[in-house]
Design goal:
Strand content: over 45%
Shape: globular
Radius of gyration: 19 Å
Largest sheet: 11 strands, mixed
Distance between the termini: 40 Å
């Protein structure tokens, strides 16, 4: 990986400005600020890039670690995975979102995580010949997270999407879709 940035540090804040990050196939540029408050950490980031490869940010676990399961816990989903200890404010725009070798197209989104509530509003993806836009909310303050989603797909070639994702080659065509 490579990081080129202008770094500043104060008592409670770490700032990376005019940053350029390359990790594997991923290249991102922008701003990253981490504020350390009393009982919470707040991350603020505005990033743009040509390519974001999800695989570049996945950890490598042994099969034994990934196969192990823990007993049910009375804590909330947010507490269980640590999303209640951090607040995040993110704006992201990339020309190519890659999942393994699959290019899912151009994406733009705004996301906020605050006290266990994740909101991605709005998101927009130009993919498979059309546009998918909407919002997503995950409330992790329950044992089982609650999810709300609104999605609209316009002229989206679902047949090609399914084929490229390895689901089927029997479906062709495009569609308009609205789901709430």
């Amino acid at each position: 990986y490579e990081l080129i940035t202008s770094l500043s540090l104060s008592d409670n804040t770490l700032s990376l400005r005019d940053s350029r990050l390359t990790v594997g196939l991923t290249d991102l540029a922008g701003l990253f600020i981490m504020e350390f408050k009393e009982d919470r950490t707040h991350l603020f980031s505005r990033l743009t890039g040509d390519t974001l490869q999800i695989k570049d940010f996945q950890s490598i676990e042994s099969e034994n670690d990934s196969a192990s399961t823990s007993p049910p816990s009375p804590e909330s989903f947010a507490q269980h995975i640590g999303m209640d200890d951090i607040d995040i404010d993110l704006e992201l725009a990339v020309n190519s979102l890659l999942v393994d070798q699959q290019n899912l197209g151009k994406i733009a989104l705004s996301a906020k995580l605050e006290e266990g509530l994740l909101s991605v509003t709005p998101f927009r993806a130009e993919t498979f010949g059309g546009v998918i836009a909407g919002s997503f909310e995950l409330d992790g303050n329950h044992t089982a997270p609650k999810i709300a989603m609104e999605v609209r797909a316009l002229d989206w070639d679902y047949g090609q999407a399914l084929k490229d994702l390895g689901v089927t080659s029997q479906i062709t065509g495009s569609t308009d879709l609205e789901a709430i």
